[in-house]
Known about the structure:
The chain has five helices and eight strands. It is α+β, with helices and mostly antiparallel strands and 223 residues long. Strands 1, 2, 3, 4, 5, 6, 7 and 8 form an eight-stranded mixed sheet that branches. The protein starts with a strand and ends with a helix. Mean pLDDT is 75; it is low at 158-163, 186-195 and 205-218.
Amino acid sequence: xxxxxxxxxxxxxxxxxxxxxxxxxxxxxxxxxxxxxxxxxxxxxxxxxxxxxxxxxxxxxxxxxxxxxxxxxxxxxxxxxxxxxxxxxxxxxxxxxxxxxxxxxxxxxxxxxxxxxxxxxxxxxxxxxxxxxxxxxxxxxxxxxxxxxxxxxxxxxxxxxxxxxxxxxxxxxxxxxxxxxxxxxxxxxxxxxxxxxxxxxxxxxxxxxxxxxxxxxxxxxxx
Length: 223
């Protein structure tokens, strides 16, 4: 079964920081709940895994990731991921993701197109449910992506500020007595980033699908 996804997610970070995360394949993979890069074979080939938890039971899916294109000028990443579990289910995804400028210099947009093919027990969900599951997982991915990008320092801002204030600081230090040290600069408080989920909680996904099914069922009757 094949599912195609086209998504646009606004980001409250500038394009440079968003691209720095997207172009780092291990960092991008780490934003997906339950996913991780386990080995780097070379600059374009990686080994990865995805953990799925259903109550006390858990399962792991192993796979390969190949970077097909990495265009810094266009801020575009294209990769192909394939994976399978011991039960015979398999999945592949051809993903193209691009960082576009936002409405302001401090914002950007993550644009993604994915073609997902699933076989085995996952195909039993059907296209409609697969899209709902994908939407839920991608929502969690983007939340983690935003946190990762926002945690990076803004390029050029610190350098420009230092360049603007350096002459005044130099003059003030020259005029001051040698024994007097400049006042220490207070370190701004940076709140800790929320921890991302280490596993995909299948029960939460299932409950989300059940609620959506009942909502559509009764909503259709009222209409």
